[in-house]
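User: Could you walk me through two proteins back to back? I'd like the raw sequence and the C-alpha coordinates for each, with a short line separating them so I can tell where one ends and the next begins.

Assistant: Of course. Protein one, sequence then structure:
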Amino acid sequence: MTPIPDIDIDLRWAQTRYDSSYDDRGAERPIRLEKTEGYVIIEGKPYPAREIVEAMAQSGYTQLKAVGDSLIFGNRRITPIFKSRQERAMASLCHGSLAYCCPLSKRCADRDRSLEMLGLTQDDYQRLKAESHTHFIDASRGLSSQEDYEPREDLGQRSANRPSTGGDYSSDDYRGDFETLDRSMQSSRPSPVQAQGQDRWSAGQGYSLEQQESPFSEGRTAGPFNDDREEDYRGDQRRPVTRDKSSSTACRSCSGDSVEGLGSLFAQGELSPFAEDKRTEEPKRSFCFSCGRSLREGTRVCPYCGSSR
Protein backbone atom coordinates (compact mmCIF):
# COMPACT_ATOMS: atom_id res chain seq x y z
CA MET A 1 0.00 0.00 0.00
CA THR A 2 1.41 3.34 -1.06
CA PRO A 3 0.15 6.75 0.07
CA ILE A 4 -1.31 9.05 -2.54
CA PRO A 5 1.07 12.04 -2.95
CA ASP A 6 -1.22 14.59 -4.58
CA ILE A 7 -4.89 13.71 -4.40
CA ASP A 8 -7.54 15.62 -6.27
CA ILE A 9 -10.93 15.35 -4.56
CA ASP A 10 -13.95 16.84 -6.26
CA LEU A 11 -16.84 17.25 -3.81
CA ARG A 12 -19.16 19.14 -6.11
CA TRP A 13 -21.48 16.19 -6.54
CA ALA A 14 -21.67 15.28 -2.87
CA GLN A 15 -24.70 16.70 -1.17
CA THR A 16 -26.99 15.95 1.76
CA ARG A 17 -30.76 15.92 1.47
CA TYR A 18 -32.94 17.73 4.00
CA ASP A 19 -36.55 18.67 4.19
CA SER A 20 -37.51 22.16 2.98
CA SER A 21 -38.88 23.08 6.41
CA TYR A 22 -35.41 22.78 7.96
CA ASP A 23 -33.49 24.86 5.39
CA ASP A 24 -33.12 27.82 7.78
CA ARG A 25 -31.77 25.59 10.52
CA GLY A 26 -29.41 23.49 8.36
CA ALA A 27 -26.28 24.88 10.03
CA GLU A 28 -27.59 24.24 13.58
CA ARG A 29 -27.51 20.41 13.48
CA PRO A 30 -24.92 17.76 12.43
CA ILE A 31 -24.87 16.13 9.00
CA ARG A 32 -26.94 12.97 8.68
CA LEU A 33 -24.74 10.43 6.89
CA GLU A 34 -27.58 8.13 5.88
CA LYS A 35 -28.94 10.86 3.59
CA THR A 36 -25.65 11.74 1.88
CA GLU A 37 -25.77 11.05 -1.87
CA GLY A 38 -23.59 11.54 -4.92
CA TYR A 39 -20.05 10.53 -5.67
CA VAL A 40 -16.51 11.82 -5.21
CA ILE A 41 -14.03 11.78 -8.11
CA ILE A 42 -10.48 10.90 -7.03
CA GLU A 43 -7.86 10.58 -9.78
CA GLY A 44 -10.55 10.08 -12.39
CA LYS A 45 -12.40 7.31 -10.53
CA PRO A 46 -15.84 7.83 -8.97
CA TYR A 47 -16.29 6.78 -5.34
CA PRO A 48 -19.50 6.86 -3.28
CA ALA A 49 -19.61 10.12 -1.33
CA ARG A 50 -21.50 8.60 1.58
CA GLU A 51 -18.78 6.05 2.37
CA ILE A 52 -15.99 8.64 2.06
CA VAL A 53 -17.71 11.13 4.35
CA GLU A 54 -18.53 8.41 6.85
CA ALA A 55 -14.94 7.12 6.84
CA MET A 56 -13.53 10.62 7.32
CA ALA A 57 -15.95 11.28 10.17
CA GLN A 58 -15.07 8.05 11.96
CA SER A 59 -11.30 7.97 11.40
CA GLY A 60 -10.55 11.67 11.85
CA TYR A 61 -7.05 12.61 10.82
CA THR A 62 -5.62 9.53 9.10
CA GLN A 63 -3.44 8.70 6.15
CA LEU A 64 -5.22 8.07 2.86
CA LYS A 65 -3.77 5.10 0.98
CA ALA A 66 -4.53 3.48 -2.36
CA VAL A 67 -4.48 -0.28 -3.04
CA GLY A 68 -5.18 -0.76 -6.71
CA ASP A 69 -8.38 1.17 -7.36
CA SER A 70 -9.51 1.02 -3.72
CA LEU A 71 -9.02 3.69 -1.07
CA ILE A 72 -7.98 2.93 2.52
CA PHE A 73 -9.23 5.27 5.28
CA GLY A 74 -7.77 3.79 8.46
CA ASN A 75 -9.48 0.39 8.67
CA ARG A 76 -12.05 1.22 6.01
CA ARG A 77 -11.70 0.05 2.41
CA ILE A 78 -13.69 1.94 -0.23
CA THR A 79 -13.99 0.64 -3.78
CA PRO A 80 -14.96 2.83 -6.74
CA ILE A 81 -18.30 2.68 -8.50
CA PHE A 82 -18.11 0.07 -11.28
CA LYS A 83 -20.37 -0.38 -14.26
CA SER A 84 -19.87 -4.14 -14.59
CA ARG A 85 -18.66 -7.11 -12.59
CA GLN A 86 -15.61 -7.37 -14.86
CA GLU A 87 -14.43 -3.93 -13.73
CA ARG A 88 -15.11 -4.86 -10.11
CA ALA A 89 -13.10 -8.06 -10.47
CA MET A 90 -10.16 -6.25 -12.04
CA ALA A 91 -10.23 -3.47 -9.45
CA SER A 92 -9.81 -5.97 -6.62
CA LEU A 93 -6.30 -6.87 -7.85
CA CYS A 94 -3.07 -5.24 -6.75
CA HIS A 95 -2.28 -3.70 -10.14
CA GLY A 96 -5.84 -3.33 -11.39
CA SER A 97 -5.64 -6.03 -14.08
CA LEU A 98 -4.96 -9.73 -14.51
CA ALA A 99 -2.36 -8.87 -17.14
CA TYR A 100 0.01 -7.67 -14.39
CA CYS A 101 -0.90 -10.31 -11.81
CA CYS A 102 1.41 -13.03 -10.51
CA PRO A 103 1.67 -16.54 -12.05
CA LEU A 104 -0.10 -19.60 -10.74
CA SER A 105 3.03 -20.81 -8.95
CA LYS A 106 2.42 -18.11 -6.33
CA ARG A 107 -0.59 -18.09 -4.06
CA CYS A 108 -2.82 -15.04 -4.48
CA ALA A 109 -6.30 -14.86 -3.00
CA ASP A 110 -7.19 -11.70 -4.93
CA ARG A 111 -6.25 -13.35 -8.23
CA ASP A 112 -8.31 -16.47 -7.50
CA ARG A 113 -11.28 -14.34 -6.43
CA SER A 114 -11.03 -12.26 -9.60
CA LEU A 115 -10.89 -15.38 -11.79
CA GLU A 116 -13.97 -16.73 -10.05
CA MET A 117 -15.87 -13.48 -10.60
CA LEU A 118 -14.92 -13.45 -14.29
CA GLY A 119 -15.86 -17.10 -14.77
CA LEU A 120 -12.35 -18.12 -15.88
CA THR A 121 -10.40 -21.22 -14.90
CA GLN A 122 -6.74 -21.51 -14.05
CA ASP A 123 -6.10 -23.15 -17.43
CA ASP A 124 -7.62 -20.13 -19.17
CA TYR A 125 -5.45 -17.82 -17.09
CA GLN A 126 -2.31 -19.78 -17.96
CA ARG A 127 -3.20 -19.82 -21.67
CA LEU A 128 -3.81 -16.06 -21.73
CA LYS A 129 -0.51 -15.48 -19.97
CA ALA A 130 1.29 -17.62 -22.57
CA GLU A 131 -0.37 -15.69 -25.40
CA SER A 132 0.69 -12.36 -23.89
CA HIS A 133 4.26 -13.70 -23.62
CA THR A 134 4.13 -14.64 -27.32
CA HIS A 135 2.87 -11.16 -28.17
CA PHE A 136 5.86 -9.62 -26.41
CA ILE A 137 8.25 -11.84 -28.37
CA ASP A 138 6.54 -11.03 -31.67
CA ALA A 139 6.57 -7.31 -30.88
CA SER A 140 10.32 -7.47 -30.26
CA ARG A 141 10.74 -8.97 -33.74
CA GLY A 142 8.87 -6.12 -35.40
CA LEU A 143 5.31 -7.47 -35.38
CA SER A 144 3.94 -4.54 -33.48
CA SER A 145 0.46 -4.38 -35.03
CA GLN A 146 -2.31 -6.43 -33.51
CA GLU A 147 -3.30 -7.96 -36.85
CA ASP A 148 0.15 -9.53 -37.30
CA TYR A 149 0.08 -11.71 -34.19
CA GLU A 150 -3.66 -12.21 -33.93
CA PRO A 151 -4.38 -15.97 -33.72
CA ARG A 152 -5.78 -17.36 -36.94
CA GLU A 153 -8.82 -19.59 -36.95
CA ASP A 154 -8.25 -23.16 -38.08
CA LEU A 155 -9.90 -24.07 -41.37
CA GLY A 156 -11.23 -27.35 -40.00
CA GLN A 157 -13.04 -25.58 -37.14
CA ARG A 158 -14.95 -23.18 -39.38
CA SER A 159 -18.41 -23.87 -40.70
CA ALA A 160 -19.54 -23.44 -44.27
CA ASN A 161 -22.99 -22.07 -43.40
CA ARG A 162 -21.95 -18.64 -42.15
CA PRO A 163 -22.37 -15.15 -43.62
CA SER A 164 -20.16 -14.54 -46.63
CA THR A 165 -19.70 -10.86 -45.82
CA GLY A 166 -18.03 -9.38 -42.81
CA GLY A 167 -14.88 -7.65 -41.68
CA ASP A 168 -13.42 -10.77 -40.06
CA TYR A 169 -14.15 -13.22 -42.86
CA SER A 170 -13.65 -11.08 -45.97
CA SER A 171 -10.32 -12.71 -46.92
CA ASP A 172 -11.08 -16.36 -46.10
CA ASP A 173 -11.13 -19.12 -48.71
CA TYR A 174 -14.67 -20.50 -48.67
CA ARG A 175 -13.85 -23.21 -51.21
CA GLY A 176 -11.94 -25.11 -48.54
CA ASP A 177 -14.99 -25.02 -46.26
CA PHE A 178 -17.24 -26.56 -48.90
CA GLU A 179 -14.61 -29.18 -49.74
CA THR A 180 -14.53 -30.17 -46.08
CA LEU A 181 -18.31 -30.44 -46.06
CA ASP A 182 -18.23 -32.55 -49.23
CA ARG A 183 -15.68 -34.93 -47.72
CA SER A 184 -17.81 -35.39 -44.61
CA MET A 185 -20.85 -36.20 -46.76
CA GLN A 186 -18.88 -38.73 -48.80
CA SER A 187 -17.64 -40.45 -45.66
CA SER A 188 -21.25 -41.09 -44.63
CA ARG A 189 -22.00 -42.96 -47.90
CA PRO A 190 -21.51 -46.80 -47.99
CA SER A 191 -18.16 -48.09 -49.21
CA PRO A 192 -17.86 -50.18 -52.44
CA VAL A 193 -17.36 -53.36 -50.37
CA GLN A 194 -20.61 -52.76 -48.51
CA ALA A 195 -22.43 -51.97 -51.75
CA GLN A 196 -21.15 -55.24 -53.31
CA GLY A 197 -22.38 -57.19 -50.26
CA GLN A 198 -25.82 -55.59 -50.59
CA ASP A 199 -25.94 -56.52 -54.31
CA ARG A 200 -25.09 -60.13 -53.51
CA TRP A 201 -27.76 -60.28 -50.82
CA SER A 202 -30.38 -58.88 -53.19
CA ALA A 203 -29.27 -61.35 -55.90
CA GLY A 204 -29.70 -64.27 -53.49
CA GLN A 205 -33.13 -63.03 -52.47
CA GLY A 206 -34.21 -62.70 -56.11
CA TYR A 207 -32.91 -66.19 -56.94
CA SER A 208 -34.80 -67.74 -54.02
CA LEU A 209 -38.01 -66.00 -55.08
CA GLU A 210 -37.53 -67.33 -58.61
CA GLN A 211 -37.15 -70.89 -57.28
CA GLN A 212 -40.34 -70.52 -55.25
CA GLU A 213 -42.37 -69.15 -58.13
CA SER A 214 -41.10 -71.60 -60.79
CA PRO A 215 -43.24 -74.62 -59.70
CA PHE A 216 -46.41 -72.64 -60.52
CA SER A 217 -45.45 -71.97 -64.14
CA GLU A 218 -47.86 -72.81 -66.93
CA GLY A 219 -48.00 -76.30 -68.47
CA ARG A 220 -47.55 -78.23 -65.19
CA THR A 221 -50.64 -79.93 -63.77
CA ALA A 222 -49.02 -82.49 -61.45
CA GLY A 223 -49.42 -82.30 -57.70
CA PRO A 224 -46.86 -80.51 -55.55
CA PHE A 225 -45.60 -83.76 -53.96
CA ASN A 226 -45.19 -85.77 -57.16
CA ASP A 227 -41.71 -87.30 -57.72
CA ASP A 228 -41.93 -87.03 -61.50
CA ARG A 229 -42.67 -83.35 -61.26
CA GLU A 230 -39.71 -82.90 -58.91
CA GLU A 231 -37.38 -84.58 -61.41
CA ASP A 232 -38.71 -82.33 -64.20
CA TYR A 233 -38.20 -79.31 -61.98
CA ARG A 234 -34.59 -80.29 -61.26
CA GLY A 235 -34.04 -81.00 -64.91
CA ASP A 236 -35.25 -77.51 -65.75
CA GLN A 237 -32.70 -76.13 -63.34
CA ARG A 238 -29.84 -77.81 -65.20
CA ARG A 239 -30.98 -76.49 -68.56
CA PRO A 240 -29.42 -73.21 -69.78
CA VAL A 241 -31.78 -70.27 -69.45
CA THR A 242 -31.82 -67.74 -72.28
CA ARG A 243 -32.89 -64.19 -71.48
CA ASP A 244 -33.16 -61.12 -73.60
CA LYS A 245 -30.89 -58.13 -73.06
CA SER A 246 -33.62 -55.88 -71.69
CA SER A 247 -34.45 -58.25 -68.85
CA SER A 248 -30.78 -58.89 -68.04
CA THR A 249 -30.02 -55.22 -67.69
CA ALA A 250 -33.08 -54.47 -65.57
CA CYS A 251 -32.70 -57.31 -63.04
CA ARG A 252 -29.77 -57.63 -60.68
CA SER A 253 -30.40 -61.32 -59.97
CA CYS A 254 -29.28 -62.24 -63.51
CA SER A 255 -25.60 -61.57 -62.74
CA GLY A 256 -23.02 -64.36 -63.04
CA ASP A 257 -21.96 -64.19 -59.38
CA SER A 258 -22.08 -67.34 -57.31
CA VAL A 259 -25.09 -67.64 -55.05
CA GLU A 260 -24.27 -67.65 -51.34
CA GLY A 261 -26.19 -68.13 -48.14
CA LEU A 262 -29.78 -69.37 -48.27
CA GLY A 263 -29.85 -68.97 -52.06
CA SER A 264 -27.30 -71.79 -52.51
CA LEU A 265 -29.44 -74.14 -50.40
CA PHE A 266 -32.50 -73.31 -52.49
CA ALA A 267 -30.45 -73.93 -55.65
CA GLN A 268 -29.46 -77.40 -54.44
CA GLY A 269 -33.06 -78.26 -53.65
CA GLU A 270 -32.38 -78.93 -49.96
CA LEU A 271 -34.70 -76.18 -48.72
CA SER A 272 -37.32 -76.45 -51.45
CA PRO A 273 -40.82 -76.24 -49.93
CA PHE A 274 -42.11 -78.69 -52.60
CA ALA A 275 -39.59 -81.47 -51.96
CA GLU A 276 -40.40 -83.94 -49.18
CA ASP A 277 -38.10 -86.76 -48.15
CA LYS A 278 -40.27 -89.88 -47.88
CA ARG A 279 -37.48 -91.87 -46.29
CA THR A 280 -37.90 -89.94 -43.07
CA GLU A 281 -41.61 -90.75 -42.85
CA GLU A 282 -42.57 -93.07 -40.01
CA PRO A 283 -45.56 -95.44 -40.29
CA LYS A 284 -48.63 -94.17 -38.52
CA ARG A 285 -49.52 -96.09 -35.36
CA SER A 286 -52.46 -96.34 -32.99
CA PHE A 287 -52.94 -97.95 -29.58
CA CYS A 288 -55.28 -100.49 -27.94
CA PHE A 289 -57.87 -99.10 -25.56
CA SER A 290 -57.74 -102.28 -23.41
CA CYS A 291 -54.05 -103.03 -22.87
CA GLY A 292 -52.63 -99.73 -24.11
CA ARG A 293 -50.07 -101.27 -26.48
CA SER A 294 -49.21 -99.57 -29.75
CA LEU A 295 -50.63 -101.10 -32.90
CA ARG A 296 -50.21 -100.55 -36.61
CA GLU A 297 -52.70 -98.36 -38.38
CA GLY A 298 -55.60 -100.45 -39.67
CA THR A 299 -55.33 -103.31 -37.13
CA ARG A 300 -58.84 -104.27 -35.99
CA VAL A 301 -58.04 -107.01 -33.40
CA CYS A 302 -55.32 -106.54 -30.80
CA PRO A 303 -52.83 -109.45 -31.05
CA TYR A 304 -51.89 -109.06 -27.37
CA CYS A 305 -55.23 -109.03 -25.55
CA GLY A 306 -57.57 -110.11 -28.35
CA SER A 307 -59.98 -107.22 -27.93
CA SER A 308 -61.51 -105.71 -31.04
CA ARG A 309 -61.22 -102.01 -31.73
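----
Protein two, same layout:
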Amino acid sequence: MFRSVSMSSENRPQLPEVYKVAIWHNESGLIVSPFGRGLPLTTTARHDSTHPQDYHYPRCVMDDNIFLAFYPRRRIDYGFLFRVLAVSNNDLDAAIKQSSKSPPTFFLDFAIQEKWASLENLLLQVTKNLLEAHPNYRGMPDIDYPRLPHQYGYRHEHREKEVAYRCAKRARDAFTLLSALSSFAIALCLSRSPILAGVHRLRL
Protein backbone atom coordinates (compact mmCIF):
# COMPACT_ATOMS: atom_id res chain seq x y z
CA MET A 1 0.00 0.00 0.00
CA PHE A 2 1.10 3.52 -0.69
CA ARG A 3 1.23 5.88 2.19
CA SER A 4 -0.93 8.92 1.72
CA VAL A 5 0.87 12.21 1.79
CA SER A 6 -0.80 15.14 3.44
CA MET A 7 0.06 18.65 2.44
CA SER A 8 -0.84 21.77 4.28
CA SER A 9 -2.58 24.55 2.43
CA GLU A 10 0.52 26.69 2.91
CA ASN A 11 2.74 24.23 1.02
CA ARG A 12 0.24 23.25 -1.66
CA PRO A 13 1.14 24.68 -5.10
CA GLN A 14 -1.17 27.49 -5.98
CA LEU A 15 -2.68 27.80 -9.44
CA PRO A 16 -2.07 31.30 -10.83
CA GLU A 17 -5.14 33.48 -10.60
CA VAL A 18 -5.12 34.13 -14.34
CA TYR A 19 -5.74 30.44 -15.16
CA LYS A 20 -8.52 29.72 -12.69
CA VAL A 21 -11.47 30.09 -15.04
CA ALA A 22 -12.19 26.77 -16.74
CA ILE A 23 -15.63 25.82 -18.07
CA TRP A 24 -16.96 22.75 -19.82
CA HIS A 25 -19.22 23.51 -22.76
CA ASN A 26 -21.42 20.71 -24.13
CA GLU A 27 -20.55 21.51 -27.74
CA SER A 28 -17.16 23.19 -27.58
CA GLY A 29 -15.55 21.15 -24.80
CA LEU A 30 -13.14 22.67 -22.32
CA ILE A 31 -12.93 26.45 -22.34
CA VAL A 32 -10.14 28.11 -20.37
CA SER A 33 -10.21 31.88 -20.26
CA PRO A 34 -8.03 34.22 -18.23
CA PHE A 35 -10.50 37.06 -18.75
CA GLY A 36 -14.01 35.63 -18.95
CA ARG A 37 -16.32 34.79 -16.10
CA GLY A 38 -18.88 32.72 -17.98
CA LEU A 39 -19.87 31.18 -21.26
CA PRO A 40 -20.16 33.40 -24.33
CA LEU A 41 -23.64 34.75 -24.89
CA THR A 42 -23.62 33.63 -28.51
CA THR A 43 -22.02 30.70 -30.30
CA THR A 44 -22.27 29.65 -33.92
CA ALA A 45 -24.97 27.15 -34.74
CA ARG A 46 -22.50 25.27 -36.96
CA HIS A 47 -18.75 25.00 -36.47
CA ASP A 48 -18.28 24.96 -40.26
CA SER A 49 -20.36 28.07 -40.96
CA THR A 50 -18.77 30.45 -43.47
CA HIS A 51 -21.23 33.28 -42.92
CA PRO A 52 -19.11 36.41 -42.30
CA GLN A 53 -21.03 37.39 -39.17
CA ASP A 54 -20.46 33.96 -37.60
CA TYR A 55 -16.69 34.41 -37.61
CA HIS A 56 -17.10 36.87 -34.73
CA TYR A 57 -18.70 34.24 -32.49
CA PRO A 58 -16.95 31.47 -30.52
CA ARG A 59 -16.94 28.12 -32.28
CA CYS A 60 -15.37 24.69 -32.05
CA VAL A 61 -12.48 24.73 -34.53
CA MET A 62 -11.13 21.63 -36.22
CA ASP A 63 -7.58 20.84 -37.27
CA ASP A 64 -8.23 21.95 -40.84
CA ASN A 65 -9.59 25.37 -39.83
CA ILE A 66 -7.77 25.96 -36.55
CA PHE A 67 -6.62 29.34 -37.87
CA LEU A 68 -10.16 30.64 -37.22
CA ALA A 69 -9.12 30.91 -33.58
CA PHE A 70 -7.04 33.90 -34.73
CA TYR A 71 -9.89 35.69 -36.50
CA PRO A 72 -9.52 39.38 -35.55
CA ARG A 73 -12.33 40.86 -33.51
CA ARG A 74 -11.54 44.41 -34.58
CA ARG A 75 -10.91 46.14 -37.88
CA ILE A 76 -7.57 45.43 -39.50
CA ASP A 77 -7.50 48.24 -42.09
CA TYR A 78 -4.88 50.40 -40.40
CA GLY A 79 -1.14 50.38 -39.82
CA PHE A 80 1.72 50.22 -42.28
CA LEU A 81 0.63 47.01 -44.02
CA PHE A 82 -3.15 46.89 -43.79
CA ARG A 83 -4.06 50.52 -44.33
CA VAL A 84 -4.36 49.74 -48.06
CA LEU A 85 -7.66 48.04 -47.13
CA ALA A 86 -9.12 51.24 -45.67
CA VAL A 87 -11.46 51.76 -48.60
CA SER A 88 -15.10 52.41 -47.69
CA ASN A 89 -17.94 50.95 -49.72
CA ASN A 90 -18.62 54.35 -51.27
CA ASP A 91 -14.97 54.85 -52.17
CA LEU A 92 -14.81 51.34 -53.53
CA ASP A 93 -17.79 52.03 -55.77
CA ALA A 94 -16.08 55.17 -57.04
CA ALA A 95 -12.89 53.18 -57.66
CA ILE A 96 -14.60 50.98 -60.26
CA LYS A 97 -13.39 52.24 -63.62
CA GLN A 98 -14.83 51.79 -67.09
CA SER A 99 -12.65 50.71 -70.01
CA SER A 100 -12.74 52.20 -73.49
CA LYS A 101 -13.57 48.86 -75.03
CA SER A 102 -16.76 48.21 -76.97
CA PRO A 103 -18.73 46.95 -75.22
CA PRO A 104 -17.12 48.50 -72.12
CA THR A 105 -15.78 46.48 -69.21
CA PHE A 106 -15.40 47.50 -65.58
CA PHE A 107 -12.47 46.98 -63.24
CA LEU A 108 -11.06 48.07 -59.90
CA ASP A 109 -8.66 51.01 -60.08
CA PHE A 110 -5.20 49.68 -60.92
CA ALA A 111 -3.54 51.53 -58.03
CA ILE A 112 -5.76 49.69 -55.53
CA GLN A 113 -5.27 46.42 -57.39
CA GLU A 114 -1.51 46.70 -57.08
CA LYS A 115 -1.61 47.53 -53.37
CA TRP A 116 -3.99 44.67 -52.60
CA ALA A 117 -2.01 42.23 -54.72
CA SER A 118 1.22 43.18 -52.93
CA LEU A 119 -0.39 42.65 -49.52
CA GLU A 120 -1.99 39.37 -50.54
CA ASN A 121 1.23 37.98 -52.00
CA LEU A 122 3.18 39.04 -48.92
CA LEU A 123 0.76 37.37 -46.50
CA LEU A 124 0.66 34.18 -48.54
CA GLN A 125 4.44 34.03 -48.82
CA VAL A 126 4.96 34.62 -45.10
CA THR A 127 2.33 32.01 -44.22
CA LYS A 128 3.75 29.42 -46.61
CA ASN A 129 7.34 29.94 -45.49
CA LEU A 130 6.52 29.79 -41.78
CA LEU A 131 4.36 26.69 -42.01
CA GLU A 132 6.84 24.81 -44.19
CA ALA A 133 9.70 25.80 -41.87
CA HIS A 134 7.97 24.28 -38.85
CA PRO A 135 9.80 21.10 -37.71
CA ASN A 136 6.55 19.13 -37.60
CA TYR A 137 5.22 20.44 -40.91
CA ARG A 138 5.07 17.04 -42.64
CA GLY A 139 3.08 15.58 -39.77
CA MET A 140 0.52 18.38 -39.63
CA PRO A 141 -3.03 17.85 -40.88
CA ASP A 142 -3.90 19.63 -44.10
CA ILE A 143 -5.25 23.14 -43.61
CA ASP A 144 -8.40 24.06 -45.49
CA TYR A 145 -7.27 27.41 -46.86
CA PRO A 146 -9.95 30.10 -46.94
CA ARG A 147 -11.00 31.58 -50.25
CA LEU A 148 -8.26 34.05 -51.09
CA PRO A 149 -8.91 37.68 -52.08
CA HIS A 150 -7.77 37.27 -55.70
CA GLN A 151 -10.18 34.37 -56.12
CA TYR A 152 -13.03 36.86 -55.89
CA GLY A 153 -11.84 38.50 -59.10
CA TYR A 154 -10.65 41.94 -58.02
CA ARG A 155 -7.81 41.66 -60.56
CA HIS A 156 -10.15 40.94 -63.49
CA GLU A 157 -12.38 42.98 -65.78
CA HIS A 158 -16.14 42.45 -65.62
CA ARG A 159 -19.03 43.16 -67.94
CA GLU A 160 -21.09 45.00 -65.33
CA LYS A 161 -20.06 47.65 -62.83
CA GLU A 162 -22.13 46.08 -60.06
CA VAL A 163 -20.34 42.76 -60.53
CA ALA A 164 -16.94 44.47 -60.42
CA TYR A 165 -17.96 46.28 -57.23
CA ARG A 166 -19.22 43.11 -55.51
CA CYS A 167 -16.03 41.24 -56.41
CA ALA A 168 -13.87 44.04 -55.02
CA LYS A 169 -15.92 44.26 -51.81
CA ARG A 170 -15.73 40.52 -51.18
CA ALA A 171 -12.01 40.53 -51.93
CA ARG A 172 -11.42 43.36 -49.45
CA ASP A 173 -13.32 41.49 -46.75
CA ALA A 174 -11.46 38.23 -47.52
CA PHE A 175 -8.23 39.77 -46.27
CA THR A 176 -9.55 39.35 -42.72
CA LEU A 177 -9.57 35.56 -43.07
CA LEU A 178 -6.17 35.63 -44.73
CA SER A 179 -4.82 37.68 -41.82
CA ALA A 180 -6.15 35.03 -39.42
CA LEU A 181 -4.28 32.34 -41.34
CA SER A 182 -1.07 34.39 -41.28
CA SER A 183 -1.47 35.09 -37.56
CA PHE A 184 -1.82 31.37 -36.90
CA ALA A 185 1.38 30.61 -38.81
CA ILE A 186 3.27 33.34 -36.95
CA ALA A 187 2.00 32.22 -33.54
CA LEU A 188 2.81 28.59 -34.31
CA CYS A 189 6.41 29.36 -35.17
CA LEU A 190 7.13 32.06 -32.60
CA SER A 191 5.79 30.21 -29.58
CA ARG A 192 8.52 28.95 -27.28
CA SER A 193 6.31 28.19 -24.28
CA PRO A 194 6.50 24.51 -23.16
CA ILE A 195 2.78 24.61 -22.39
CA LEU A 196 1.87 25.98 -25.80
CA ALA A 197 4.28 23.59 -27.48
CA GLY A 198 2.40 20.72 -25.87
CA VAL A 199 -0.90 22.13 -27.08
CA HIS A 200 0.49 22.37 -30.61
CA ARG A 201 1.60 18.74 -30.49
CA LEU A 202 -1.85 17.67 -29.39
CA ARG A 203 -3.69 19.74 -31.96
CA LEU A 204 -1.35 19.21 -34.88
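The chain has one domain: 53-203.

Let me know if you want the two compared in more detail.
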